[in-house]
Here is the input.
Amino acid sequence: MNLSVLGLCYLARKIVFSDDILPHLKKNKVALILIASDASLNTTKKFTDKANFYGCEVINSVSSYDISLNLGKANIKVIGILDRGFAKLIKKEVLDEKL
Here is the structure.
């Protein structure tokens, strides 16, 4: 899956990783959470429950490989997108890929 927007988002410093997501989520600064489809059940439940509590949208149909590849990092399971514009572009790319 081509999520080239993730690279731009990372360069703009609008991405937070794993446990850094929760403090930003509590302050209502996270626009979207991407959970890898191959993340563990505990990780998926933890971030999905927190996102639902704070009213944040979650996408979990992208593999860890695709997330990591587009960020230039290894083994990324969960990221939070801080910018609403980037979140909208990522949702569009994911939905277009499914069609």
